Amino acid sequence: MEQGNYQICSRCVMDTTAQEITFDENGVCSFCHFFDEKIKPDWHRDKSGYQKLQKIVKKIKDYGKNKEYDCIIGISGGVDSSYLTYFAKKILGLRPLVFHVDGGWNSELAVKNIENLIKKLDIDLFTYVVDWEEMRDLQLAFFKSGVANQDVPQDHAFFAMLYKYATQYNIKYVLTGGNLATESILPASWGYNAMDLKHLKAVHKCFGQVKLKTFPTVNFFQYYFYYPYIKGMVIVRPLNYIPYVKSEAMQFLEKEVGWRYYGCKHGESRFTNFFQTYFLPVRFGYDKRKAHLSSLILAGQMTRDEALKELQRPLCDEKAIEEEKIFVSKKLGITVDKFETFLTMPKKTFKDYPSNYRLLQLLRLISDIKRQVRYKWLK
Amino acid sequence: MLKNRVIPCLLLQNQGLVKTIRFKEPKYVGDPINAIRIFNEKEVDELIFLDIIASKVGRSPNFEILQNIVGECFMPLCYGGGISRLEDIQKIFSLGVEKISINSFALKNIDFIKQASEIFGSQSIVVTIDVKKNFLEKYKVYDHTRNKITDIDPVEFAITTQEMGAGEILLNSVDRDGTQGGYDIDLITKITNVLSIPVIAMGGAGKIDDFVDAVKKGNASAVAAGSMFVFHGKHRAVLITYPEYQELEKRLV
Ligand SMILES: [Zn+2]
Prior knowledge:
The structure holds two protein chains of two kinds. Chain A has helices spanning 30-39, 47-64, 79-91, 108-121, 132-145, 152-168, 180-183, 197-207, 220-230, 246-257, 270-284, 288-298, 304-312, 318-332, 336-344, 357-378; strands spanning 71-74, 96-102, 125-129, 173-175, 234-236. Chain A has a five-stranded parallel β-sheet with strand order 3-2-1-4-5, with helices on both faces. By secondary structure, chain A is mainly alpha-helical. In chain A, strand 1, helix 3 and strand 2 form a beta-alpha-beta unit. In chain A, helix 3 packs across helix 10 (246-257), helix 11 (270-284) packs across helix 14 and helix 12 runs antiparallel to helix 13 (304-312). In chain B, helix 4 links the parallel strand 5 (77-80) and strand 6. The longest helix of chain B is centred in the middle third of the chain and has 11 residues, at 154-164. By secondary structure, chain B is α/β, with parallel strands linked by helices. Helices cover 35% and strands 27% of the residues of chain B. The relative contact order of chain B is 0.15. The radius of gyration of chain B is 17 Å and the shape is globular. Chain B starts with a strand and ends with a helix. The A-B interface holds A 100, 102, 104-108, 111, 114-115, 118, 124-127, 129, 131-133, 327, 330-331 and B 15-16, 28-31, 33-34, 37-38, 40-42, 68, 71, 232-235, 237-241. The complex binds zinc ion (ZN).
């Protein structure tokens, strides 16, 4: 972003820190237009949405007859997946197996939230703990690579394992807390597809030292072909069919299951929290709150003025983040000084390393068509 | 502080934490630093940390890991594993560890307990005794470095360690380890009946009732548990938990 060319959308709060952003003559950004044209027409949070969801639920229940579980839910201890779990079990009457991937960054709040949730709801929990030495080495490799998408190792392991267990335990339906109310906007320039194994391996090959023997991975073929078409796995995002309001969900969970909110200091994953409130804004100038708040504006859950006010607040408590920096460095097995160099080293993008980017672009074209078909099927 | 301490016990294998069943099938449960951070925030009174490989392969404690652990740990820590020299103990204490535990080396050289307790004080020297029933269903001391049941009688051995100056006994049942089916109350009672020093019961805890039994029926001064604090449910999902303080207070009066 060049000085002087700064612009912020007149409708949401996305700005030119997202390189791909363009504006129309009224100053409305391309994310807003994308939302209006591609997302909104298919997004029904009213009665019709709920009816659609009921149809899907019936399919899941039919499929799950005589099975111990009819669906699997990946949980982090955060609000979306926690609420989804409550919603699936108590409201939809599903019998989910809850699956958690421990990437080595769980906060006490995250594990306590998971504990409270599964105990109160009487749900079975299954976990996979990623080998920390491998995780550490991979995360360090990503820092050394200079790219923005430092969340790749965590995200990749999470989904790789979720899909693997779903198929291993013969559970076809994967429910996720992903939702358009809070995530309809996510600039591609701020990160890169965490599921691109070619990219992950390339970065690790350049900067890694420990062999990845047990680190969970999912390759291109598995992700785009084997799981959906051979195994018939279906990803369902139930929160997209209801008027999901995050703040209300939080209050509800606090009351019902003794859930606790992680403030600025503790994230559900201490790494993600540190990465999003410190590393990404400081090094790249990306403030993920802008995308989140803009999503809320487009979902009609916040006014633009409220969002702007929210953005005025500091991203995090400075003292707390200094402590976190020491902790993160220690966990990664490096000095704080070494970590500081990651903040200032030349910026790189995923394009500086091998990836499946081109293949993915091609696939996006196909998947657009695929999505249309799937929506029809779900209707 | 509770009248009877309730102590999580973490097992270190190389760089990571594991949990065993009857000293076998080590299952990886994560990174020690993170586990300790979580226990910190749960305001646990005390922590036991055992390196289960060091003595087996005949090496000294991993001081680097130990230093990292101590740096994160806000509660008193008891460390065990690979201790066979007074210098090691000195170094461990200098890192900020409150207590050390001697296990297999006590079987080789009981005088070491005497030397250690004379120099560093009894209150900081714990002896861990692993007990397993032999084929005649008799309690015997188990030597994990040789995977062998010895001929040593645990009651006599416990008395000897007390005479040598041990300040506390960590009494572990190999047969109950990781089973979560309850402590071996019979074994605990046998030992507490003859000792004047505190005994920490370990091996088999699965619920708070088990703590109560160990304390009330077995007269243990403290209880330690592994699986109960790291596993949850029938899938043995890895999830660090610790009972609510009030709950413990209520049950362990
Ligand atoms: Zn906009």
